[in-house]
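Lab notebook page, bench 4
Experiment: in silico fold of construct C2
Operator: M.H.
Input chain length: 417 residues
Purpose: comparison with the prior construct
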Amino acid sequence: MWPVTVALQTHRVARDHLRTARPGQVMVLFALMLTVLVGFMALAIDAGFLLAERRAVQNAADASALYGGRLLSQGKTKAQVEAGALAYAKQIYGYDSSDPGVQIEAEATATQVRVEITRALPRLFLGVLYTGDWEVSARAVTQILPETSPYAMIALGKLPDYNGIDFNGNNTLTITCNPPAEGCGSIGSNSDITFSGSGSSMEATVWGNLGAMGNIENLPTGFEVKGDVAAGQGEIPDPFAGVTAPDCDSMPLKSEPPGPPNTPVVLEPGRYTKDIKRQNITLLPGVYCFEGSLEVIGNGSITGNGVLLYFRGPNGLFVPGNARIELTHTADPAWKNIVIWLASCNKELQLDGNGDMVITGAVYAPCSHIDLGGTADSQVVSGMVVGRTIKLHGDVTINLTTDNSYTAAPKQIYLVE
């Protein structure tokens, strides 16, 4: 029996030894696992914070680049664009290169704006395990591209010097394309578009877009725009900037045929240096250069098929008064369908009398004001109206119809990276 007793006692001792050793092993294992769990928790918290800040920094870079692109599209200098993008990042998102741990830079070219932001992040728990770089970076690039589409009316004058387009009257206005298509036949201004006075009750249907580099103020409920309505848009370049003006000095010198003002007169193409005042004027086909004024007196008329009326010099001006107007552009592609070209600056081209008007072609006064309206039954322009500033007023039905030959290319902003 002795061997058995010894064996039992030996087994009991071994068992008791295991019982006393097990609690120590569990603590060691628990400590090791706790370290791992804390490490994972620290990584999850710091990594989550990193991802959230990465999104915030990318949003700031995108928005700042878009704001810089907007400034670039409005003709600002590269220095102004870069300063504006940096100021936007600071004002809206609080990112400033003067702050410790923040690096931000903006670079503008003729067509692009790039913004890069890098921010060093604090380590909430990860610093116990990791001591290397811990930062987020983001980059955004905007591209300025022209987007060509048919326009019916453009005010070229820029803020803050000029007021853009002002609708003021009881007009019934229709702007469309031929054939009508939604988004075709737009109104654009490099300044503001305002609705003042009785213009707030104007009834209008615009098939294209209504866009301004400045503000669009007090848009009346009766002013229906089938396209987009947007302020803060890019600059619209002069659609006729590439057209060479007529060489007036090489034209044959002409003079007004004799006769009293109330007798009809027929004019031939050429250069006219003196004022012409007649009640009824007929223009033969061709190009005319007027260095004085061309004035229709009384309730007369002026008609011309296949003509370009070019007004230059300090006294060059078209004064239709209350005349009935029927003018059609020349077929010569060199003039890009312009029918009235007021090159004289700081003038006022008034197409707002009591007579009906039908103009087929573009009315172009890049450095002067255009008044369109009056009290006639209808004013019709099949083409484009381009002036430094434009005002529509009076109690009249105005129809502007454009097509694919009357286009402009406003600068649009795209986030490309």
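Observations: The CA atoms of residues 380 and 399 lie 5 Å apart. Residues 1-11 have pLDDT under 50 and may be disordered.
Next step: discuss at group meeting.
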